[in-house]
Specification:
Two copies of one chain form a homodimer. Chain A has helices spanning 120-127, 131-157, 160-172, 187-194, 198-210, 227-233, and strands at residues 46-48, 53-55, 63-69, 72-77, 83-89, 94-95, 106-109, 113-119, 180-182, 214-218, 221-224. The first copy, chain A, is an alpha+beta fold. The first copy, chain A, has a four-stranded antiparallel sheet. A four-stranded antiparallel sheet of chain A has the order 2-7-4-5. The first copy, chain A, is elongated. Chain A binds a DNA duplex through residues 13, 18, 20, 159-160, 186-188, 196-200, 202-203, 205-206, 219.
Chain lengths: 235, 235
DNA sequence: CGATTGCTTGATACCTCTCAACCCAGGTGG
DNA sequence: CCACCTGGGTTGAGAGGTATCAAGCAATCG
């Protein structure tokens, strides 16, 4: 099992063995309407504790995963420890499917989560024979690409205010009314996803609250009071 | 032919009808070792003038392209005209293959260039039957994704100096000795790719020249004098 | 030639980062 | 029970990097 590879190059606190009962994130519904076709997991669901590593950049990419519950982040590091989170993955998302022999990203559990493991080679065999598998994996890759491009626009051309607003709208989508963002991640995760620092994220949230665009009933619960104004910030 | 859709939302100068003889970019060799399998272009190569649009974001994505010569940029725009270039495409690259019904990016010619058009629907049919096509298209998608993730790291976590250094190293790869970056694009294109302004790009290049890391024999020709130092900037 | 385009450089403003202090909640142990 | 510690978050002061605004230069084009 690809747990406990090389430790991440700094920044992250040591993995807690006694896991604090953090607000478990209520995941998107994995409706099961798009099963893996002829593809079967190679084992039962694996549980990861908060901040535990699923795999590290450069490790042999023989396994990929489907998130069952919780949230997983995929990220890259620079030598000096700077981190860029590429994406957060929720229930139903695939991660770890790679073009080359090694993982191009590191994957870590944002909160306690469970994932199903798949063997990459069996997929590659099925790609040509099983239409359902082919379609799903391909569509996954294309949607990841589209999301990555949106993310580049955000990172390269949006201000801190716009970045945070976009982030909140994204996560509020998972709530019934689309107006409550329930966050599984810390401010540091938010910052490293948005290309900011935690202080700027915190200040920006405070400013949005002062301007009555949002409410902060709890640090991980953010209510969108003025969705229109927030959307305006998204151009 | 999908030329002359909606004009880009500002920023770009009007398309020149009488094309100035700009330094044509010497493309990567399209070695032909990975032909399109059973896939055939739907027509002869199409020529685009500098700054001409191949397709616009949102247009029906019925055609995709393979670059034969020249350089194409794919980019996204915000309402106010801010632009983020997602990628530059050189000979051999595919672009315009999309997961949804519409293009998610705008594509424009960086310099005079030629591309081969393919019909998307015929690929989708071949995806399940033709292994060569399937492999190539899928590999294209995965490599695009990997590149987009590298780009996110650059946009989110690198300084202007690091961004420019990375850019120069990238483009110098196409020269015989990997030490001469011959650019097909303007400083504005560089800036919009790197998430900077033209002034910052220009100042950064000047600084690199002052520090003797590069030489600027011409504005579009940049010689890397100290590759090691430049690579150090890439973490 | 004058006009335009692409590029460079300077002065200044401003946004975000850095460094620091502080708060709060939760857990731990005396 | 309370003191203490830790981790996550907020806020402030100041610095710094990049953007903005403006001027000027060189090459090209009409």
């Amino acid at each position: 099992m690809s747990v406990q590879f090389a430790p991440p190059p700094g920044r992250l606190p040591p993995i807690r063995t006694a896991l604090a009962g953090r607000a478990p994130w209520v995941p998107a519904i994995d409706d099961g309407t798009s099963p893996q076709g002829g593809l079967r997991p190679i084992g039962p669901a694996i549980r990861f504790a908060q901040d535990q590593e699923l795999y590290g950049e450069g490790d042999a990419a023989e396994t990929f995963f489907k998130v069952v519950s919780g949230v997983v982040r995929t990220c890259k590091f620079l030598n000096d420890g700077r981190r860029q989170i590429e994406a957060f993955h929720v229930a139903g998302d695939l991660l770890g499917f790679e073009p080359g022999p090694g993982y191009s990203l590191t994957a870590e559990a944002v909160c306690e989560c469970t994932v199903l493991p798949y063997r990459r080679r069996s997929v590659e065999a099925l790609l040509m024979t099983d239409e359902a598998v082919s379609r799903q994996v391909f569509s996954h890759a294309m949607r990841s690409l589209t999301r990555a491009q949106e993310h580049s626009l955000l990172l390269g051309r949006r201000s801190a205010l716009e970045k945070v607003a976009a982030f909140l709208i994204d996560w509020a989508q998972y709530s019934p009314d689309g107006m409550l963002a329930t966050l599984a991640m810390t401010r540091l995760d938010m910052a490293d996803y948005l290309g900011l620092t935690i202080e700027t994220v915190s200040r920006t949230l405070s400013q949005l609250e002062r301007d009555a665009l949002i409410e902060l009933p709890a640090t991980r619960q953010i209510r969108l009071k003025d969705l229109a104004a927030l959307q305006d910030l998204n151009s």
